[in-house]
Design a protein that fits this description.
- Belongs to the Ca(2+):cation antiporter (CaCA) (TC 2.A.19) family. SLC8 subfamily.
- This protein is an alpha+beta fold.
- It has 19 helices and 25 strands.
Amino acid sequence: MATELISTCPTNYSCAFSGTILPLTNESDWKLGTRIFMYLIGLLWSFLGVSIIADKFMCAIEVITSKTRLVDIADDRPDGQRSKTGRRTVEVTVWNATVANLTLMALGSSAPEILLSCYEVISNGFQAGELGPGTIVGSAAFNLLCITAICISAIPNGDNRTLKNGGVFGFTALLSILAYIWLYIILVPNTKHEVDLWEALMTFLYFPMLVIVAWAIDKGFFSCRRKKKLHIDHNSEVAESGSIMMDNLDKEAMEGDPSVTVAIGDGPRHHFEFTKSHDEEVGEVAEFMKAIGPDKNLTENEIAQLLVKKKSDNMPKSRAFYRVSATRVMTGGHKVEPVLSDKILKVMENLKNQTSDITMENLGSALPRKTLDTSDHSLIAVVEFASCDVRVMENAGKAIVRIHRMGNLTSSFTIYVETMNGTAEADSDYLEFKGNVTFSSGETVREIPIAIIDDDIWEPDETFFVRMTIPDLESKVVFGKWDTCTVTIINDDDPGVLEFLKPSFLFKESCCVAYIPVQRINGCDGRVSVKYNTQDLTAISGSDYHGVSNGVLYFEHGESLLNIEISIINNQSINTLGLNFQVLLSNATDGARIGNRHLTVVTLVDDDAFGSLVENVASIVTVDLKKLNIGSSTWASQFREAMSVNGGDDADATFIQYLLHFLGFGWKVLFAIVPPPCFLGGWLCFGVSLLMIGILTVFISDVASIFGCLIGLEPTVTAITFVALGTSLPDAFASKTAAINERYADSAICNVTGSNSVNVFLGLGLPWLIAAIYHKVNGSTFGVPAGSLSFSVVLYSITAIICITLLVLRRKLSLFGKAELGGTKIPKYLSSLFLVCLWIVYVVLSSLQAYDIIDPI
């Protein structure tokens, strides 16, 4: 009986020995179709699992690379806000962004491919396999061609994204091609079908060389415009507390300060642990609520959602953030970006249509500045910009920014004026201005000419800022309403359209004066005027405010934003619902036209009621922002998030999100045992996650090998198709999200070229070095068949050169909008289609060679 049972269960059946661990059971009596289906599902499910554990890995990397420390620098600010000690503390990142992207970030993206290659070499008795190298080359082709194609098409029609740091991209792109050319050299002409120890060692050592040179390029060591060096002072003391997040100190703290002294003021801290004080948060919420205006249809929670969304949009985001976000969208996990209802999305769209740009830069901080009520200025000189918004045509040659002086006209004083980059950048869009401006006795107006650079490159309207500061705290001069002016460079010579900035405004009863902005859009040529008057609603003129009839607002040439001033009467009689009146525009002159927002409603609210509302919203914002942290702080919270759709935020969960959560539930609960990223600065989570990825990689290797064997695919073809796509999909979604949300293309495509280089130098260099050492010790040679691999390498190099050439042409040609990503509809889709076709050609030709239909190189 035992003999009969054994004979009915043969062990030597089709693809029985293709895996190291799998199959776990005897599959000899399974139908071929059943086995193919089960292994396909297993392969897809394992890709889902590796995406989820890579999420944990990326969370650890985000914590590690976002580590900051406090440094103490000389306080040479000319704005009269110097500390008594003459020093100030700033917060700087420990990791250089370029180094982080090419080391930990690239490792996070490529860990499955790298570990798969290492495992395959070791499991094959230190002999080269085909799955690992094939996956690395296949992933490189998919990343460069398909992800770039996705990013080009993802940008909305007419919009574009350009590379900001072209030097680093150019270097990594060149090196990604040279890396594969190097592989061909060591596999074919030099020592054919062998890899010597020195070749493996050089391949591995190219990785630190890549990082060092890229870092040097980023720091400007190969540029004629070198950054200044820092002088470390370890004995200085920390002056005042502060939190000025900077990419690194060289880029920000050194600007305009030739004598910066740095001292470590505190140990490492993480950026998400730095929060504003309660008073600052409340002040920010109050300014935001005034900016969006009253809307009785918005609840406290909805106002908080708007502010959380604005804060989230303006926070700097790393590659790890986008990778984590993409993975959680794919798996129905805890969201790291706020989810908004349709109602809030409509409000957001309305806010975007208003030119007020309610950003974190102009929300306004609650910190006091040197200013006072301009109605009491008999002894004090008051200076302010004539307009907080000036517009100038690009071909005008210069922008004139006027500073008005009021109050005491007999004194003489000096203020400091400087320009700051916005979307327009100094030396490419305008010439930087920094210097003192002196008002003599009796002088009431000063004009600051700022040169505008007229180039032949198409660009949307761009802005920069002009800021005034007061060097001397004791000087008898203060600011009026505007100490910062926005300058917009446009291509329009129309007199423009006049309308209110928003359909409604909110003011506290105690504000004394309500400043209601009127904007001039679609042109700012010439001097124009518009009449305005007020009308009572629930507020009564003479009792609640001082009404105006037949008021006139004059716009000088180039001015695009002025205020109507309405005096408010503080009679402390406003109910909790508030009182309102409306202001209307009429009779625009000199060719100007009245826009759609010719009427605005002004609501006056009681100070106590408004304060209570602001406090409630601030509390909600604080809680909601904590929910957006990409890493959990405890094991308990990790398990709660793992067992709940959207990490517990299931109010708006869709069927698809429930389905994705169900499919990944087992992996989520299993990987919840990984230590939270807040432990030991993220390194414990990093190590355990890497171990988990390694274990899962063994499983993927076996499943992919057996699946390829069952359907008759060569290991190389399986590697460049199924395995390469499965390991690269999260990166594709991450790059697409980064392309849409970021201002520049760097986050979307720079990681591609960097990761491709790292894949070669680590993914092949490390396992080959291990195997070469083993064979050197044992007196044998490390054989690496050049056939399929060398053909794929050469083919990839050709397609990579074509792809990078296309990106260069897109940057140079107006047809593509002179940008790497985006542009007009037809050219951008044709670019994407061309790159996808290149990838298909790569896969088809590599497959034909694997089956010996095409001769190897």
